[in-house]
Amino acid sequence: MSSQPSSPQHLIRLSDLSPAQLDDLLELSLRMKRKGARAPQSGKTAGLLFFRGSLRTRASFEAAMTQLGGSTINLSAAADFWELESQVGSIMDGKPPEHVKDAAAVMSSYVNVLAIRPKPAGNSWAVDRKDTEIHTWASYAKVPVINMESALWHPLQALADLMTLREALGELRGKELAIVWTNSPTPATPAVVNSLLHAALSRGMRVRVAHPAGFELDAGVLDEAATLAKEHGASVSCGMSLAEGVRGAQVVYARSWMSLEDYANPTLAATRRSRQTGWMVDERTLALGAEARLMHAMPVRRNLEVSDAVLDGPRSLVYQQAENRLHSQKALLVQLLRG
Amino acid sequence: MSSQPSSPQHLIRLSDLSPAQLDDLLELSLRMKRKGARAPQSGKTAGLLFFRGSLRTRASFEAAMTQLGGSTINLSAAADFWELESQVGSIMDGKPPEHVKDAAAVMSSYVNVLAIRPKPAGNSWAVDRKDTEIHTWASYAKVPVINMESALWHPLQALADLMTLREALGELRGKELAIVWTNSPTPATPAVVNSLLHAALSRGMRVRVAHPAGFELDAGVLDEAATLAKEHGASVSCGMSLAEGVRGAQVVYARSWMSLEDYANPTLAATRRSRQTGWMVDERTLALGAEARLMHAMPVRRNLEVSDAVLDGPRSLVYQQAENRLHSQKALLVQLLRG
Amino acid sequence: MSSQPSSPQHLIRLSDLSPAQLDDLLELSLRMKRKGARAPQSGKTAGLLFFRGSLRTRASFEAAMTQLGGSTINLSAAADFWELESQVGSIMDGKPPEHVKDAAAVMSSYVNVLAIRPKPAGNSWAVDRKDTEIHTWASYAKVPVINMESALWHPLQALADLMTLREALGELRGKELAIVWTNSPTPATPAVVNSLLHAALSRGMRVRVAHPAGFELDAGVLDEAATLAKEHGASVSCGMSLAEGVRGAQVVYARSWMSLEDYANPTLAATRRSRQTGWMVDERTLALGAEARLMHAMPVRRNLEVSDAVLDGPRSLVYQQAENRLHSQKALLVQLLRG
Question: How distant is the Cα of C5 from the closest Cα of chain A, in angstroms?
């Protein structure tokens, strides 16, 4: 949360919310789900800017805002407008005709909240992990900026994940969560896993992150994770096999993420990925857990990441988890636009 | 209509509506047109998924929903998200990162109704005629699925067509309808004609379908047409010349459709099409009818399919027909979302 | 304004508004800005058609309509539908499957107002300056058509510009406005400048248009400008250097526009443009004015058209000007939809 009283509250990562705010938010999410909502967002407008495609995030965010009585403006960089410059001080004689600082200031005068899905450049993890684009938006916007998944964080998914974990497990302290790497030809950045890991640790969960060698999470994220674990009596360990990860877990969270070592080299990345076998969650794997439930942020590649039998079986929480995107985003919008 | 009481009512083809429902719908459409509507769709959301482009369908559907007080979420596969897998049980290591069954289940938790325009693959009529994609959506959706034109059916157009025929002719039983093939370099599938043919026969009309050799309608659709004709005291005949088709007709419905014989072979199709001459509706043609009115589902290629003089003349119903898309879709939404 | 009482009022260029209407509009714009608005556009729909991309125009127009209680339908030619034919009487066997006259008539039955951003073909200024496409839309539409920037005019920008000039300068009569050409690799047509020039002259301002040789404005626009200057006791002169233009000006309006001489020849145009140096507004330039304020319609290329120091300094009106798009468009919508 910003220290300047007049600056808007952004949500770039989950820790932008105070513990009390996060508690409120989860309570409100559950209430929204039980009772629906007819909150006073009438006349309010959310601007949605997509520099990458989206199905779930876009549909759930639009539904949340319009079902609260507000409206949304959708802009897709590819179809609707243009590239934006984010370097400060540059001489703008290249391709982008407009600077993020100008777009942010102008859009702030039209809408009440800005939700942004930036597109990492993909040339260097050291550069992309800084999330410069979304931070630049937040610096210059005069309304709250919500991160709809940057290279490093996906706080909206983490809100829905926390809500789902709470519905499934009740009190989270001491419960066991296995985050397991799965194989996909189109892996995402570890943003979902980073946000989930920190969220789970801040609630006192015992987390294991199973993945093959070469798929280690970002060192900065892991350092913060260790600190969070110590603060909250939680624990985190990484790099074990799928079976070791799942053993004894109450929830198995499957997710494919790219190797940060090969981040800018798709050919090497494809080779490394193709060498990994056996990283699919099926009924045999899930049976290693403690009546484990399955979570996945979707999109999910069936029978490659998770088997049909698990996804369509009684242990799957994936649709509940996706539905919770709607409720938790309603709660977030109510909280952010209350001011 | 589905036999399971708890499953939603879909509209993949017109016969998904019972005769009583269709009667209600037509009455409601006419009432909507006369009196406008301020129906209680406030807080309700329609999800629109376009796998192919659209002007009329998209604009009229959005206008219908928002003028009823609801809101719409538009997703275009090309710009906004990605390809979806529709084969059940496949190992998803190809291009589509998500399965229709998952997209359908998730979208069902965000919206109250899903309207979908699939894109036929175009490799085989025997395959595309199954309309697998829209049926898969309907199987897994928990909200009503509306077909916004598949390979085989276009029920929304047929609703507006029936409404327009009724406005123009009053009682339809025994009236003569000529459906005539017209020449266009970008013909559609026969979906519009299929839905119209069945709709007209189920209202007891006498229908002639004029077309050149090689442009025969789908055999399965024609078999059903023969059955419908018998049930409803209607009649259907096909394959005559333009002049024979129009002679004595009260309504001439012009439409270009592709040859199903050359369905997967654009080169052959272009050659076959270019050999057809004289398949344009002009004033001389129209004069063969019985004070015949012209209908066309649009987009219409002027002076190639229908002459300017006819389209802009007093016999043309094309704008009334297009406007009726709005009213009949409002009525449909009211009917489907009433439950 | 049309002479036929039953035809809708369009806004293709600012002079489509009577002086009294323009006065009302400016008053209403300022009132909207002070007090917000909850005007009765509920149940009304605006159709937005983009044949070229847009950020500010689209976002501000959508925000205006939805904050007034109405809704918008956005259609982007690239993503959502198709090319349209605008020649009357043509045999439509080419690429466009639909005629503007049909699209205009049909869309008129779905929405209450149509806002259109056409895409000039770019092959000939003599052809594009006719703005055939938007005039064809206006001819056949049965609802008001609003020009969201054609080759020749950008009346929505001019409304916001007038509002901003009035806020900054009070009474405009006799005040000095410098419109100065700036260098950009992606210059626009002179539409913004044309509309601004006529607007400023019709309010009695003394206008200088500074630009390099070869960047003369359209001769027809300049002829009308001379007439307007005479009628309103204003003055206009063109073609001086940047310094001569700015000297003594109260407002400096920076804008890059393309050379009409090289209009259809991008290679020649790039060469001509690259020869221009020193056409950037920085603090030293601005100091030549009379405590001059800076305006720019955006997008602005920083440190190429205008320096960071000026854009981010106390003399800049650019964000106020962009915000005024929202308020003046609300006022326009209220005025056009009142009928």
Answer: 34
Inter-chain residue contact B304 with C92, CB threshold 8 Å: yes
Contact C315, C281 (CB under 8 A): no
**Average pLDDT, rounded, for chain B:** 91
Given A79, A99, A110, which is nearest C326 (Cβ)?
A: A110
Nearest CA in chain A to B45: A63
What are the chain C neighbours of A92 within 8 Å (beta carbons)? 301-304
Query: What would the two tokens of residue C318 be?
Result: 């650019």
**Whole-number mean pLDDT of chain A?**
91
The angle that helices B318-337 and B56-67 make with each other, rounded to 10 degrees, is 50
Q: Which ranges in A69-218 belong to alpha helices (H)?
A: 100-108, 125-128, 132-140, 155-169, 191-202
Chain C interface includes A71 (CB < 8 A):
yes
Contact criterion met (CB below 8 Å) for B197 and B318 = no
Smallest Cβ–Cβ distance between C99 and the set B67, B186, B302 belongs to B302
pLDDT value at B3 more than 90: no
CATH of span B14-153+326-337: 3.40.50.1370
Q: Which residue ranges does chain C devote to CATH 3.40.50.1370?
A: 14-153+325-337, 157-322
Per-residue pLDDT of chain C (339 residues; tens, 9 = 90+): 333 446 777 888 877 788 787 788 778 787 777 876 665 677 899 999 999 888 899 999 999 999 988 999 998 876 666 788 888 899 998 888 999 999 999 999 999 999 999 999 999 999 999 999 999 999 999 999 999 999 999 999 999 999 999 999 999 999 999 999 999 999 999 999 999 999 999 999 999 999 999 999 999 999 999 999 999 999 999 999 999 999 999 999 999 999 999 999 988 888 998 889 899 999 999 999 999 999 999 999 999 999 999 999 999 999 999 999 999 999 899 888 875
Question: Does residue A181 surpass a pLDDT of 50?
Answer: yes
Task: Flag if B109 and A50 touch (Cβ within 8 Å).
Answer: no
Q: Which chains touch C (3 or more CB pairs under 8 A)?
A: A, B
How distant is the Cα of B97 from the closest Cα of chain A, in angstroms?
6
Closest chain C residue to the Cα of A82, Cα to Cα: C53
Assigned CATH topology for domain B157-322: Rossmann fold (3.40.50)
Strand-pairing partners, residue B293, are B251
CB of A71 within 8 Å of any CB in chain B? yes
* Nearest CA among A124, A125, A148, A127 for reference residue A137: A148
Q: How many Å apart are CA B311 and CA B319, to the nearest integer?
A: 9
DSSP letters for A285-335:
HHTTSSS-EEEE-S---BTTTB-HHHHTSTTB-HHHHHHHHHHHHHHHHHH
Of the candidates A232, A7, A303, the one whose C-alpha atom is nearest the C-alpha of residue A138 is: A7
Q: Which of A71, A74, A106 sits opposite C56 (nearest CB)?
A: A106
Sign of CA dihedral B162, B164, B165, B171: positive
ipTM of the complex model: 0.89
What superfamily in CATH does domain A14-153+325-337 come from?
Aspartate/ornithine carbamoyltransferase (3.40.50.1370)
The pTM of this model reads 0.92
Q: Provide the pLDDT confidence category of residue B87 given band limits of 50, 70 and 90.
A: confident
- Tens digits of per-residue pLDDT, A191-236? 999 999 999 999 999 999 999 999 999 999 999 999 999 999 999 9
From chain B, the residues in CB contact with C113 under 8 A are: none
The verdict on a CB contact (< 8 Å) between C81 and B54 is yes
| Interval C212-250: pLDDT, tens | 999 999 999 999 999 999 999 999 999 999 999 999 999
User: Searching chain A, which residue's CA lies closest to the CA of residue B101?
Assistant: A312
Buried b (16+ CB within 10 A) or exposed e, B98-131: bbbbbbbbbbbbbbbbbbbbbbbeeeebeebbeb
Whether C71 sits inside 8 A of B69 (CB atoms) is no
* Nearest residue in A to B44, CA atom: A67
